[in-house]
Amino acid sequence: MRVELAEVEGWLRERLPGLAEEHGVPGVSVAVGVEGRVVEAAAGVLSTATGVEATADSVFQIGSITKALTATLVMGLVAEGLVELDAPVARYVPGFREATVRQLLCHTSGFEGDVFTDTGKGDDCLEKYVELLADMPQIFAPGEMFSYNNAGYCVLGRIVEVARGEPFGRCMRDHLFTPLGMTHAANDPYEAILHRAAVGHRGGRPVPVWSGPRSEAPAGSMLAMTPRDLVTFARAHLTDEGLRAMREPQVVLPDIGWGTAWGLGWELHDLPGGPVFGHKGNSIGQSAVLRIDPGRDLAVAICVNGGDGKALMKEILGRVVESPAEPVPDRAARPDARRCAGVYLSSTSETTVSEDERGRLWLEKVPLGFAVEIGSEPYRTELLGWRGNSLLPAKPGHGPVAFLGDDGEGRARYLHTGRADVRAPGRTEA
């Protein structure tokens, strides 16, 4: 199905202000590109405190979409022969734990990856951050499975610094922003303030801080830009044959609604209409999505600064690009309570799965550490049958969860929601 840009532009200009209001989104900006042509629209405000209008030239934080840009920098090093994908990371970061560059790129390195330590604002912040990872537990053997790993992308950022001999932000500007003509892209608050910059919101109010630490910049704590510049970046991935390898499947994903597989930095969807790839991003009170359809030479980028951004994004994406079908519970499927029940831990959450007297399975998640700091809230929901080892939370807004592996006693070892949380030894809930 061909996308008519004029129709998309007209719909966005007519509907975007209403959509933002309906979903409680303070400000939103959208860009859609087809065959090199781009239309864009914006609505709302950058901050409810100032009332400054959101425009197409406003920069929003893109969160973890940054990982796709970091991966692109790494692939530039690979193309120049400065880095090998299957080389141990220790070749470039001496003393680093067992893992290859490829495993970092596709989230299969296996160590605890939710590490959000602020190591300062200096050019040595990444070097200091990477040193802290020696103490992180190894959850599974490298290459064994997928588990989303923020810290791994900070290590990749450090590899870029070592290979280029320059701080990460300068590498980003010199090797991506400037060559691609990304004119409204900011590495940090000092660059963002040169543009109309969005502020994150929670509960309709501006958040008290603009970004996360500089040490996490390669994973997505700081980078801000316009959706137009995101589409410009996507265009490079549609036209540069040297980047095509990034969308080749590297690891099959658990059945959790995230996609079919993960590539070298991209989330991959194998859909009836053909392959689609992209990334999502969340930062402090802001969120974004980038979706790319190579078969139609199309890219769409959406940035919001609060509210129910997920619902707004879903409605816009549905107008221009094929999306995965929404999961529907299988009422005939009976969750295996004995296999699933227990307590599962990570650095950012404690999740208890238990069976009630009527045989229903319940999940209760309590945020820990950094998750509390960024505003995550506890929730409880029934788990409904879906397919295989994957169950579907009854509470809206939460994706499927998968119970994977074996603890040696016939129970799941991991609760997988994108990250593999590990069963706590000796703690079962039935």
UniProtKB/TrEMBL annotation:
InterPro entries xrefs: AmpC-like (IPR050491), Beta-lactam-related (IPR001466), Beta-lactam/transpept-like (IPR012338)
Domain of life the protein comes from: Bacteria
Pfam families, per the entry: Beta-lactamase
Domain Beta-lactamase-related: 17-309
Gene3D superfamilies: DD-peptidase/beta-lactamase superfamily
Record's protein name: Beta-lactamase family protein
